[in-house]
Fold this protein.
Amino acid sequence: MSGRVGDLSPRQKEALAKFRENVQDVLPTLPNPDDYFLLRWLRARSFDLQKSEAMLRKHVEVRKQKDIDNIMSWQPPEVVQQYLSGGMCGYDLDGCPIWYDIIGPLDAKGLLLSATKQDLVKTKMRDCELLLRECTCQTEKTGNKIETITLIYDCEGLGLKHLWKPAVEAYGEFLCMFEENYPETLKRLFVIKAPKLFPVAYNLIKPFLSEDTRKKIMVLGANWKEVLLKYVSPDQLPVEYGGTMTDPDGDPKCKSKINYGGDIPKKYYVRDQVKQQYEHSVQISRGSSHQVEYEILFPGCVLRWQFMSDGSDIGFGIFLKTKMGERQRAGEMTEVLANQRYNAHLVPEDGTLTCSDPGIYVLRFDNTYSFIHAKKVSFTVEVLLPDKASEEKMKQLGAVTPK
C-alpha cells in the first residue's frame, strides 16, 4: 500500500490513528493537520511512530522560532528579492504548482557577501510556504487534493563558480530544511540542460537528499522540451521551456513570475569575505615553496581549494607530475594553472579546476621570491568526484551540453 489517503493497509490505518493521538497537543498550532498532512510525516519515516512524532514536533518548534505563520508578511532583503533566481510559474497536468530554479545566472558568492545565510534560508522557507498555500488554492479550485509540487532545474550555465564551498554548504542547509520541514511535498524534479559538470555538483548535494527524493529526480536529455510537455500543458509552460505561456507583455521567459538572477553589484556587499575554517596550516620558509599532492584517478574530477596567507602575499599554481614517486621542481612538471602571486592576506583565495587527465596533481604554494619573510599559509583542498550513476545516465540520454 502507498501509505496515502484511500490506500492504507490495516497497519497503516492503525499507525495514523495512533499518530494523531500522540501529537494531538500540537495539532491546533498547524495550518491544516488533516490525514493527508499527517501521512506525509509517517511516510517520510516509514511509518515509524516514534521517528515521525519526533520529526513533526521538531517542525512545530521551527515554526515557532521562525514565526512561519506570519512569514508571508516578512520581506526578504532587497538584494535577495532582486537576485535570488527562481519562481513559481504554471501547473502540471494534475494541477500541482511548478517551481523553477535557474542555476546558471545565480551569483551564489554575491548573495553570501550581501545577505546573511539565515535570510537566504528563511527566504527559501517562505517560498515553500508560498507553494503549500498554492497547493491549498489548487485543491479548492480543482476539487482534487493537491499536496505536491513539480520542480524544474534549469542547469544551463552551471559552472565551477557554483561549487564554491560556502555556497554548497548554504544550499545544503536549505535542502536539509526542506527535507526536515516539508516531507513528501516533492512530486518530481526535472533537471534540464545539464552540463558535464552536473554529476560533480550532484554528488556534492546528494548527501543532503533522502533516498525517496533522489528517486524523484529525472535528468532529461536533448529532448527535454518534448518530455516536459508530457507532464505540463503548453499553456502552463513558458515559451522559453517549450510551451506557449508568455507574460502579458509577450516576454517568453515569464520574468514577472520567474527571477533570472544575475551578477550582484558590489554596492550590495556587506562583507568582503565569508568566514571559513581551514584544515591545514604550514610555515613556508623564505625563498622556499610547499607542495601538496592529490591523485586523480579518472577525468572529470574537480579540485577545489581555499587558502589564506598571514601578513603578506603568496604565490600559487597547479602542476601535473611527469614522474611518479619523487618530488619535482615546478619547471620539471606540466603547468596546469599558471603560478601567480595572490593577496591572500587581504582576501582569502578560492578556486576550482576540472581535471581533464588522471595523474598526480601538485598544488604549489610559492614563497621563493621572498628573501626576507617566511609565510604562514592556511588551506583546505578537496577532490570532488562525479556521481557515477548520474554521469552514466547523462551519457545514455545524450544530456551533456557544451560547457
Summary: Residues 399-403 have pLDDT under 50 and may be disordered. The first strand starts at residue 87 and ends at 91. Residues 10-66 form a domain with the Helicase, Ruva Protein; domain 3 fold (CATH 1.10.8.20).
